[in-house]
Amino acid sequence: MTDEGFDWLDSSSAQFVLRWRDRIRGALLGLALGESASIPTQLRRAGSFTPVRDLFGGGPFDLPRGAWADETAIMLCVATSLLDRGCFDSVDQLEQLRRWQQRGEHSATGECLGITAAVSRALVDSAPNTALPDGSDALTRLAPLVMWHLADDADALARDVAAATQITSHQDSTLQLARVFSLILKSALHGASHAALCEQIAESQWPQTDAGRLLSLATGAFCSTANWKDAVLEAINHGGDSDVLGALCGQLAGAHYGASGLPVAWLESLAERELIERRADALLAAVLVGRH
User: Fold this and answer.
1) In which element (H, E) is residue 267 found?
2) Which helix (H) or strand (E) holds 138?
């Protein structure tokens, strides 16, 4: 989708759509870049490593610079399903995730890397395993679903967020987090100011779970900084589940600052950048034509 593709719009409308495209691209690219940047700090204790200040490779899977693992892959599964089916289809979403698990589809390396025990069991059993605690995957894959409902009312988004969450998660607290974060993402995509987003975040209630703690850290990093790069670096240098932190903070900050606010040198190294941009542009086109 080029700027010339908006010739049918008047000048003010075209600028509005271009700003929307910048934020939509920013959210998906920001998610992938955030996860990629987290690679050196994953599974490491905060304070045990020199804080990361640039984009590197390595990590548990010895990935090259700009590559990513599970968080971005599951986001692409969601985006692809929405675009292929023209609606939210939980059966197809499950199948997309299974093809990633079994064949490495939608991955940066051709392999399914980083899948959690909870997600793996849910894909095998076609339902979440109640003996396993939820991870954060339901949160990190929200961005395409929020984009799909960008022009819809809150009820339509809430219904699909609930159905999407229940594919791999069973805890009520996870659904609560997904609903709250989806509304924050939607505000960011609609152009809410940094101050307004941080007020919305401050008023949110995070359940005291691992996912709640990670979302609190990720949104806290966004609120305590003034640009995408600083926000993501603040998030991922907590270590531990830094891939989740990078993906959560990266998509929120990307939605706010836009693709134009992402580090150019990092973007040039990002694996499957053009694929991610195509998915973002296709989601925007679906919104503009009412998905029909």
Assistant:
1) helix 264-269
2) helix 137-140
User: How is residue 153 annotated by DSSP?
Assistant: -
Contact residues for 287 (Cβ-Cβ < 8 A; gap 6+): 20, 147, 148, 150, 151
Per-residue confidence (pLDDT) for residue 153, from 0 to 100: 87
User: Which amino acid makes up residue 124?
Assistant: V
Half-sphere exposure of 47 (CA within 13 A, CB side): 0
Per the confidence metrics, is the pTM higher than 0.85?
yes
Is the CB of residue 102 less than 8 Å from the CB of residue 112?
yes
| Amino acid (1-letter code) at residue 18 | L
DSSP for 69-106 reads -HHHHHHHHHHHHHHHHSS--HHHHHHHHHHHHHH-TT
Predicted local distance difference test score (pLDDT) of residue 5: 42
Domains located in the chain, CATH noted: 21-46+58-288 (1.10.4080.10)
Q: Give, rounded to a whole angstrom, the gap between the first and last alpha carbons of the chain.
A: 18
User: What pLDDT, on a 0 to 100 scale, did the predictor assign at position 2?
Assistant: 42
Per-10-residue mean pLDDT of the chain, 292 residues long, equals: 44 80 98 97 92 94 96 98 96 97 95 95 96 96 96 93 97 96 97 98 92 97 98 97 98 98 98 97 91 47
Q: Can you say how many angstroms the Cα of residue 166 is from the centroid of all Cα atoms in its chain?
A: 17
Residue 47 exposed, middle or buried by CB count within 10 Å (0-12, 13-18, 19+):
exposed
Q: What is the CA 5 to chain-centroid distance, rounded?
A: 26
